[in-house]
Design brief:
The structure is a single chain. By secondary structure, the protein is mainly alpha-helical. 44% of the residues lie in helices and 6% in strands. The chain is built from nine helices and five strands; from the N terminus they run αααβαβαβαββααα. It has helices at 3-8, 29-38, 51-59, 91-103, 114-119, 150-165, 201-212, 223-247, 255-282; strands spanning 82-86, 109-113, 141-143, 190-191, 195-196. A hairpin with a 3-residue loop joins strand 4 and strand 5. Helix 3 packs across helix 6. The radius of gyration is 31 Å and the shape is elongated. The chain binds iron/sulfur cluster (SF4). The site of iron/sulfur cluster (SF4) has 12 residues, from helix 5. Iron/sulfur cluster binds next to helix 5.
Length: 283
């Protein structure tokens, strides 16, 4: 242990005489525990997209995360305590990511690297992209950038070290895994037609029940879409009216033809209304 590191552990509450400061350190259990953990964090070895290239560069000789005791990237979640989410999180990948997080031993930390991991980035509106890993996992540090430079990632790692330094074995609210027993695992998302967060299952059930009861759609359709639906219905009714005219010819020859004409008029009216609304929306 170098002289600098030993002085780093000194606790001002119990001052050590100057002549002994290079040989003796009096400190708290939390301090030495946090110091040992944050000086040897082992990140999990995985990358998701372009940001991973910068993460690899950070670990290589030029920037060298060995200076932080972080050079041992583990290929197993069982041996890692830091998850660097480096890249775009797709709905397909969020399932194994949450599973891997649950398999990491506590204490464990998550660093969201780059715009994609932090909030969806340039693909935020994409049908297959999760708008930020923090929708599923508790993120400790966000590193901005697209991609963040190795210096930015190192700055994020230093911020994480400072956060760990401030944690206390006595404060169970702040650091749940210092309490008795393991904390609850994050529910694994379900990949169906869209990604489903099991924690929102009650909300999804309520919306499905409302929709089934006809009380209201789970999500309001835009007016243009409603117009299109009504136009299609009117056209279908017009076509059906023509068929009915042949089938019902013997009983009431003139009535089905009138229905078809009325449906065609309705369709034209709806189309005109839709055009007007679109024009109004542009102004
Ligand atoms: S933030 Fe930019 S560099 Fe990083 S994964 Fe997304 S698109 Fe790629």
């Amino acid at each position: 242990m170098s002289e600098f590191q030993l002085r780093e552990l000194h606790d001002t509450e119990f001052p050590v005489p100057a002549e002994f400061q290079d040989n003796i350190a009096i400190t708290s259990l939390s301090r030495i525990y946090n110091w040992s953990r944050r000086s040897s964090m082992w990140p999990m070895l995985f990358g998701l997209a372009c940001c991973a290239i910068e993460m690899i560069a950070t670990a290589a000789s030029r920037y060298d995360t060995a200076r932080f005791g972080m050079e041992v990237m583990r290929a197993s979640p069982r041996q890692a305590d830091l998850m660097i989410v480096s890249g775009t999180v797709t709905k397909k990948m969020i399932v194994p990511i949450v599973r891997l997080y649950n398999q990491m031993p506590e204490p464990k930390y998550v660093l969201a690297m780059g715009a994609c991991a932090s909030g969806g980035g340039p693909f935020k509106e994409g049908y297959n992209v999760v708008s930020g890993i923090d929708q599923f996992l508790p993120v400790d540090v966000y590193v901005p950038g697209c991609p963040p430079t190795p210096q930015a990632l190192i700055n994020g790692l230093i911020a994480l070290q400072k956060k760990i330094d401030g944690q206390s074995l006595a404060n169970l609210d702040d650091v749940p895994w210092y309490g008795v027993g393991p904390s609850d695992p994050v529910p694994i998302p379900v990949l169906a037609a869209d990604i489903i967060d099991p924690r929102q299952m009650e909300l999804i059930r309520q919306q499905a029940e409302r929709t089934a009861a006809g009380v209201g759609a789970a999500r309001a359709l835009p007016q243009a879409a409603l117009d299109r639906v009504q136009i299609e219905r009117a056209r279908a009714a017009a076509a059906k009216g023509g068929t009915t005219a042949i089938a019902a010819k013997s009983s009431a020859p003139s009535e089905p033809v009138d229905e078809a004409i009325a449906a065609a008029r309705l369709a034209r009216r709806m189309e005109a209304l839709a055009r007007k609304r679109a024009k109004d929306a542009q102004q």
